[in-house]
Every structure is written in structure tokens, then in C-alpha cells.
């Protein structure tokens, strides 16, 4: 009887030790399979305030803080008026090509529906800082937030912004647009360039004029359309399209 009891106790201890080892092994596996610190940083900062998820791991939330300027220059675009010269720069470590981003910006600003549609303004991309009136930056969420904060603007790492001489496009918005925008990514990209460059040209925010109609390009479409439909262009059918000015 005593031998049986000893065997039962020994067997019970062995089962307890095996279960404990299994728990420790599982916990160890959880630690090693979890996100690395850099991944957690992307999740914490990439999607902006109030978001449940960060950006996909295909691009970072922060970069080097330094920028590569696209080379060369574009033709002068527009029929008449003063010439606004701009540079295009992409943050190092953002995973984006400066020349490709410059080509996208050039295509937007050269479109007759963009700001040159007034026939009272011309634009040209150049590479030299000394000759440029402003620079269009593509920056990671953390870097764009810091750049905007230098001018007293709070973006929560989510929105783009404009400071005098600086148009700062948030990388996350450039790659993901915003939820429920209701239009392809290319439309949002054209909108965000025209909107922030519009600020550089002295334009303020505007309200949705007619629910169900196009949103003015100076409406803050990133925060919602307020009943309007997505629209990327300041000129529609050859005419400047506006809403009521907002304070």
C-alpha cells in the first residue's frame, strides 16, 4: 500500500512539473514571437490619434529626419502670371523614391484643373533651394508631426500640413488615404497636394457648399466630407469651385 502511495505521489509531482514547464515554454514563445520594438513603434505612431491599428509594416512611422531632393526640373506650367518655383523632397528611410514622388506632384500641379487653371499663375519644379519659393516634403508620420509642430500645428502624426515655404505630406496619408473617402487613392493624393499647396498660395479652409455635390479642394477632406463628394481639384469645368470660407 505504501509503495502504491509513493508511486502515486511521484507520478503527481511529475505531472505538475511537466505542466509548469509547458506554461513557461508557452510564455517564452509569446515573448519571442511578439513584435519587435520597432514594430511596436510603428503601431503606436503610424495611424494617428484614436486609431486602433497602425500602418502596415511596409513603411515606417519614422525616418532619418533628413531629406533627398528630387533632381532636375520640370517645364514651366501655366499660361500667365507670376512663376512659383518649388522643390520636392522625400525623407530618407521612408522607403519612397524622390523622383517618383516628384513626378506625381508635377502631374498634379501641371493639371489644368489645379491652381494654374486661373491662368494667373505658373509653376515649375526646380532642385536648387536658393531659387525655390517652397518645398513639398514627403515625411513619415513622426517626422511630419515634428515638422508641423515647429509652426505650432498639431497633426497627431495623422494629417499633412503647410508652414510658410513648406508643404508637408504625411507618408501614411499618401499611402493609405483616409477611411471612407469614397474615391481611389490617386484622387486623395491629388487632393492633399492641391489642398496644402493651396494654403501656400494663400487659400483658407472652406465648407461643403451642397451635400451631394463636390467638396471644395480647400475643405478639410481628411477629416470627413460632411455630405460632399471627394474632389481633388480647385477648378471644375474651367471655373474656380469654392465653398463658404471657414475661420
- CATH domain class of the domain at 67-205: Alpha Beta
Shape: globular
Query: How big a fraction of the residues is strand?
Result: 5-15%
What is the CATH architecture term of the domain at 67-205?
3-Layer(aba) Sandwich
SS elements, strand count: 8
Order of helices and strands: HHEEHEEHEEHHEE
Considering DSSP H and I runs of 4 or more, what fraction of the residues is helical?
25-40%
Give the integer mean of the pLDDT values.
83
Number of helices: 6
Helix/sheet category: alpha/beta
Question: Which stretches are poorly predicted, pLDDT < 50 over at least 5 residues?
Answer: 1-57
How far apart the termini lie comes to 91 Å
Protein name: DUF3152 domain-containing protein
Domain DUF3152: 57-225
Region (Disordered): 28-66
InterPro entries: DUF3152
Report on the architecture of this protein.
This protein is α/β, with parallel strands linked by helices and 247 residues long. It has a domain at 67-205: Collagenase (Catalytic Domain) (3-Layer(aba) Sandwich). It is built from six helices and eight strands. It has helices at residues 2-33, 37-45, 98-109, 141-149, 171-176, 185-200; strands spanning 67-69, 83-91, 122-125, 134-139, 161-163, 166-170, 235-236, 239-240. The strands form two sheets. Strands 1, 2, 3, 4, 5 and 6 form a six-stranded mixed sheet that branches. A two-stranded antiparallel sheet has the order 7-8.
List the helices and strands and how they pair.
Layout: H1 2-33, H2 37-45, E1 67-69, E2 83-91, H3 98-109, E3 122-125, E4 134-139, H4 141-149, E5 161-163, E6 166-170, H5 171-176, H6 185-200, E7 235-236, E8 239-240
Parallel strand pairs: 2-3, 2-4, 4-6
Antiparallel strand pairs: 1-2, 5-6, 7-8
Amino acid at each position: 500500500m505504501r509503495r502504491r502511495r509513493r508511486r502515486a505521489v511521484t507520478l503527481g509531482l511529475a505531472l505538475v512539473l511537466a505542466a509548469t514547464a509547458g506554461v513557461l515554454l508557452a510564455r517564452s514563445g509569446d515573448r519571442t514571437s511578439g513584435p519587435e520594438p520597432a514594430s511596436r513603434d510603428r503601431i503606436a505612431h503610424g495611424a494617428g490619434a484614436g486609431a486602433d491599428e497602425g500602418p502596415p509594416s511596409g513603411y515606417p512611422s519614422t525616418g532619418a529626419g533628413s531629406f533627398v531632393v528630387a533632381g532636375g526640373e520640370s517645364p514651366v506650367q501655366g499660361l500667365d502670371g507670376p512663376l512659383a518655383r518649388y522643390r520636392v523632397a522625400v525623407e530618407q528611410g521612408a522607403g519612397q523614391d524622390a523622383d517618383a514622388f516628384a513626378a506625381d506632384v508635377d502631374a498634379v500641379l501641371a493639371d489644368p484643373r489645379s491652381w494654374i487653371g486661373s491662368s494667373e499663375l505658373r509653376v515649375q519644379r526646380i532642385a536648387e533651394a536658393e531659387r525655390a519659393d517652397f518645398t513639398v516634403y514627403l515625411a513619415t508620420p513622426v517626422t511630419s508631426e515634428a515638422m508641423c509642430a515647429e509652426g505650432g500645428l498639431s497633426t497627431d502624426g495623422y494629417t499633412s500640413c503647410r508652414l510658410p515655404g513648406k508643404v508637408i505630406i504625411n507618408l501614411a496619408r499618401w499611402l493609405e488615404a483616409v477611411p471612407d473617402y469614397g474615391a481611389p487613392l490617386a484622387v486623395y493624393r491629388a487632393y492633399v497636394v492641391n489642398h496644402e499647396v493651396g494654403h501656400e498660395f494663400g487659400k483658407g479652409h472652406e465648407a461643403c457648399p451642397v451635400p451631394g455635390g463636390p467638396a471644395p479642394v480647400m475643405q478639410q477632406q481628411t477629416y470627413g466630407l460632411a455630405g460632399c463628394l471627394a474632389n481633388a481639384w480647385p477648378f471644375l469645368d474651367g471655373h474656380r469651385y469654392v465653398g463658404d470660407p471657414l475661420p
